[in-house]
Each structure stands twice: as structure tokens, then as C-alpha cells.
Amino acid sequence: MKYSSEKEIIRGCIRKERKAQEVLYKKYYRTMLGLCLRYSKDKAEAEDVMLDGLTRIFLKISKYDGRGSFEGWMKKIMINTAIDNYRKNLKHYYHEHIDDVDEEYMASSKIPDNLSRDQIMSTLQQLPPGSRMIFNLYAIEGFSHKEIAGKLDISANTSKTQLLKARKTLQKKLIQLNTITYNTSQNE
Description:
The protein is an all-alpha fold. 73% of the residues lie in helices and 0% in strands.
């Protein structure tokens, strides 16, 4: 059977047809791996998280009700899989508490705009796991500190602290990278 539409792919996956699962994998591989890379320390861990997430997708696909985007539904499962991986492996790291976070600093953080996606992703993966997880959940996925605290079993203040640290570290590293990139291009 040919799987030319999303609905056909979903129906095939519900029937546990290997070809439909393969088509789904090939169609969404890059998107899902990119999402998992943001939450992982390296590509190998990201691939493990993605494969675990795909397994969950295949097991739960019959529960997709057709409302909203199928890709969005899968991303939610991938994010939850990445969170579970974080909890399983690194839950006890980075639990600090503060009373106030410099929100003005957070709002004024500037990232150079001439860096490539790969340069930014590489820099993001250099963050400590706890900071990387919180940065992704807050800055990219749009979760609140209260929601992050609930998902990771930490306080909202710890989430704020880790976000501040992540932003400061990212800003510093990206500015350094931008300077190196700029100086290299000037010397050519």
C-alpha cells in the first residue's frame, strides 16, 4: 500500500504496518531529531530519545483524535520523552534556589544574528543538562516556570535560576563565537 497522505500513514501505523511506520519515520526524522538534539548532550543521546519517542508514538497513535496538528502531537510526545530521559539520568543536578532573578537582564539578552543554525545548536548543546532542559522548555516551547517546576519536580525559582544561567552562558558563548567567525571572515 502506498502512504501518500498523513491520514493514510496514521491509519497504517494504527494497523501496525511496518511500511507505514517507516514512511512516518522518514517523513519526520529530521524534525524530531532536531527537537531531541535541543534536549540532549549529543547526537547519540538525541537519537536514543527520538527512538524512544517514536516507540511511544507508535504505541499511542490510535489515541490521536485528529484535532490539531499531527506533528504538534508528536512533538509533545518527544518533549515528554526528553523530559523523562532527563529525569531518569540527571534529575538531581542543578537544584538551586534564589529569591529574585534579574528579569531585566533576561529581557535584554542579545544573540548575534549572523550565526548559523548549526553554530547555535552546537552552543546550546554545551550547556549543562539542567540549564539546557529549562532553556528549551521556557524559551523555545513556551512553558511557564511553574509548569517547568511541575514537570521536572523542582521549584519555580530553580527554573528561573537555571534559565538565567543558560541565557548568560549562551550569550557569552555566542558572542565569542560571533567574534571568532567575524574575525575569520575579515582575514580571508
